[in-house]
Amino acid sequence: MVSMVGRRDPALGAVFDLDGVLVDTARFHFAAWQKIAAEHGFSLGDEVAESVKGVSRDEALAIVMRSGSIRLSAEEAARAASRKNDLYLETVKDLNENALLPGAAAALRLLHSRGIPVALASASKNARPILQSTGIAGYFSAIIDGTVVSRAKPDPEIFLAAAAALDLEPGECVVFEDAVAGIEGARIAGCRVVGIGDATVLVDADSVAESLADVDWGAEFGHADVVKEIR
Ligand code: B16
Ligand code: MG
């Protein structure tokens, strides 16, 4: 049996969220939801942005419609979800490596050079084309996305599947997440979590960095010299 590493021991694998961690697409998801809200006659306040991060398309639609006190039939909901996806895909159709967030490319290169296996754990059903268009698909040993899992974050399913795909225990993996729902799911799975974003929002993460460029890689993976390399 593989033993679990303690919270301070070096992790053996890395699990990345996509939108808002590796790629600057969270704002495009939200802009599409704002258009959907406008088309339903209400304006979607910025305070909703955090709660639609990391959750599935259907769950995000439910959150958006709740905030506008709108009830949709199953048919209307399916149409609105599909329209949101069309709007989102229109904004990401010309995505390239310039959409990678600070530190993302350097982190993936570094982990690869150290032989640390990397998995994706993204709720998005559009994850694969986005990994391709931004040129980072080749770094992933496993891709667990919205086409693979049936339960949305904060359910731990996606993180358990990512760890299993790397042939590691959840406690041997460190997850990088920008969403409150994702941090909750990763913690329930038993992974260590680095929140990417605002420390006043991501209060349940084990540690928080503004971006992947600010992560203490040496502390997470146990190589004293890695911090120097990533800067
Ligand atoms: P799609 P992540 C998530 O991706 C987004 O954060 C979330 O806003 C979106 O609703 C979800 O993917 C589903 O995306 O509509 O493309 O299937 O952050 O888990 O990488
Ligand atoms: Mg995210």
Strand neighbour order, sheet with most strands: 3-2-1-4-5-6
The biggest sheet amounts to: 6 strands, parallel
First-residue to last-residue Cα separation = 37 Å
Number of strand elements: 6
Content of β-strand: 5-15%
Structural class: alpha/beta
Give the names of the bound compounds: 1,6-di-O-phosphono-beta-D-glucopyranose, magnesium ion
- The total of helices stands at 10
Low-confidence stretches: 1-7
Average pLDDT number = 93
**CA-atom Rg in angstroms:** 17 Å
Commentary on this structure:
The protein has 231 residues and is of the alpha/beta class. It contains 10 helices and 6 strands; from the N terminus they run E-H-H-H-H-H-E-H-E-H-E-H-E-E-H-H. The chain has helices spanning 26-39, 49-52, 57-67, 74-92, 104-113, 127-133, 157-165, 180-189, 217-221, 226-230; strands at 13-16, 118-121, 142-144, 173-177, 192-196, 207-209. 45% of the residues are buried. The chain binds 1,6-di-O-phosphono-beta-D-glucopyranose and magnesium ion.
Task: Give a summary of the structure in a few sentences.
The chain has helices at 26-39, 49-52, 57-67, 74-92, 104-113, 127-133, 157-165, 180-189, 217-221, 226-230; strands at residues 13-16, 118-121, 142-144, 173-177, 192-196, 207-209.
Task: List strands and helices in order, with pairings.
Layout: E1 13-16, H1 26-39, H2 49-52, H3 57-67, H4 74-92, H5 104-113, E2 118-121, H6 127-133, E3 142-144, H7 157-165, E4 173-177, H8 180-189, E5 192-196, E6 207-209, H9 217-221, H10 226-230
Parallel strand pairs: 1-2, 1-4, 2-3, 4-5, 5-6
Bound molecules: 1,6-di-O-phosphono-beta-D-glucopyranose and magnesium ion.
